[in-house]
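Entry for the shared binder. Reason: the reviewer on the internal report wants the predicted structure included alongside the sequence.
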Amino acid sequence: MVGEDGIEGINDLVHENSMLQTENNNLRVRVKAMQETIDAQRARLTQILSDQANQVLTKAGEGNEEIGNMIQNYIKEIEELRAKLLESEAVNENLRKSLSRASTRSSLYGGRGGSFSPALLAPEKEANDVIELAKKSLEKLKRKERKKKKRYSVGLTK
C-alpha cells in the first residue's frame, strides 16, 4: 500500500498470507513425514504377518521360499487395500458431513431442503450413475444367458 506521504507500506494481509504459506509448507512436510512413517509401519506389519504365516507353514512341514514370498505379497496387497478402504471411508464420512451441513444451512436460511450445490451432489450422482450402468450391464448379461439357455434347450429337443 502507498500511504498519504507516498511511502510504501505492507498490508496486514501480506503478513498473514506469508504466515499461512509458511504454516502450509510446514504441514506439507509433516504430512510427508507421516506418510513415510505409515509406509514403514505397513512394511513392518507385512513382514511380521508373513513371518508368522511362514512359521505356521514350517511347523506343518509345507513351507518353502516361493510360498513365503507369495504370502508376503498377498499380505502386502491386503494391507494396501485396507489402507485405501479406510481412506475412502474417511473421505466419504467428510462428504456426508458437508452434505448434512449444507442441508441444514439451506433449511435454516429459508431454502428448500433439497437445494444443494452441484459440487456437493457430484460424488453421489456419479455413484448412482455407476450403479445404473452396472444394473443395465447385468440385465444385458441375464438376457444373453437366457437366450443361450433357450437355444441350448431348443437344440436338445431337436
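Summary line for the report: The mean pLDDT is 80.
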